[in-house]
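Ticket #454: bound-state structure for glycyl-adenosine-5'-phosphate.
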Amino acid sequence: MDDGFDQSPSMMKADIETITSLAKRRGFVFPSAEIYGGFAAAYDYGPLGVELKRNIREQWWKSMVDERDDVVGLEAAIISNPAVWKAAGHLDAFNDPLVECLDCQARFREDHLADESPDGSCPSCPGTQGFTTPKQFNMMLSTIVGPVSDESGRAYMRPETAQGMFVNFSQVQSTMRKRLPFGIAQIGKSFRNEITVKQFIFRTREFEQMEMEFFCYPEDSDEWYEYWKTKRLDWYHSIGIRSEHLRLRAHDPEELSHYSSGTTDIEVHFPWGWGELEGIANRGNYDLTQHADHSGQKLTYFDQDRNEHIVPHVIEPAAGVDRIFLTLLLDAYDEEKVGEDTRTVLRLSPKIAPVNVAVLPLSRNEKLTPTARNVMDVLRSQFKAQYDDAQSIGRRYRRQDEIGTPLCITVDFETMEDDAVTIRNRDTMAQERVPISGLIDACKHNLEAMTVEK
Ligand code: GAP
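RESOLUTION: The complex was predicted; output attached.
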């Protein structure tokens, strides 16, 4: 579980307010149900946010499942048998330390207090000192399932996707005829009743996880732990996040979650300090053993060569989609002087950008529109394309820069004469004239050149 922040100054070019405002203004993320005044730390992803999120999921799935023979997918129920959470230890041990201000009764996570108020006074009524002694607050969000509204229907919204992989271990292993080592991957929503929610989408009560449980021989677990740390850090570079914004940090023994014998976080240098992006944990045989004990079912792997039953050990890379989303916006944000103006540009990798090519006819009129529409039809078969003919061309370039579109295709009056269009590069603003017949290849070439590992 993530914790407080190391507060050394970040090299990100934007602060969280700038990113929150851009995300809202450009249709990435809105405060949830804003017409009713919003809802604490709940957010709705807008049209561009949806595309960006899909790209994050697709890149993760490609790297973790599609490109491997040893990992398969799963989609488990969000609300399942409460026995899962008893066995997994979450009902008893998934707690954060809660304190209450003696004066205004506002509640805080004790281990976050130092970050929120360095002088030790109450963050809600500054100047006041004094809190209750910490008590353990369980973070599971619960609901009542079925028509009877009493405790017999109490069930829990999963606080991690991981348990779905453990309770289905034997089914997946036998139906897919998997031999050790192999992994089960899942993407989906998780819920935690966080005491403090802050920093936009960094910590919310409803969020999305991408987790993979990698089952291996116990004696190989150290090696796989090292393997997954490197593999996961490389993945962040492959989607364009700069290496100087990332680091690996091993947990101290007292920080470890109840199930973990070793965890390393991939951390980001957020504007407020280093913070967790993803955790890679060595869960040992904790979960399979717990579920076998509580369910009375055998959750072992029969090794034919050794002729013995084994309880595999598990290495788990666990990432959060929303945190990756926030990291990508912060990392990609740039401002630069262009003449008298300042240009805002999101230097997102083409693998991640919500729009890859924008088709911008110089103006909306009966001569240009049909040709521009034809160009759009050609491009949308190959790329995520957007058509925009409102406002001046300069303002449309700025808008596309601000949402991170790598290429803008301009259709102008010369196009009527030479069957060619202009490609404008987001990063260099360089323009290149290209025949429409060669446009797809030219876009592919440009997008490839802009997909650099960092
Ligand atoms: N199964 C292990 C597990 O859940 P975790 O470190 O608690 O580990 C994994 O969570 C990732 O999920 C975190 O690194 C973070 O990206 C994301 N995450 C956790 N709590 C979150 C929250 N309240 N809001 C947004 N993302 C969260």
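RESOLUTION NOTES: The chain has 14 helices and 23 strands.
TICKET STATUS: resolved
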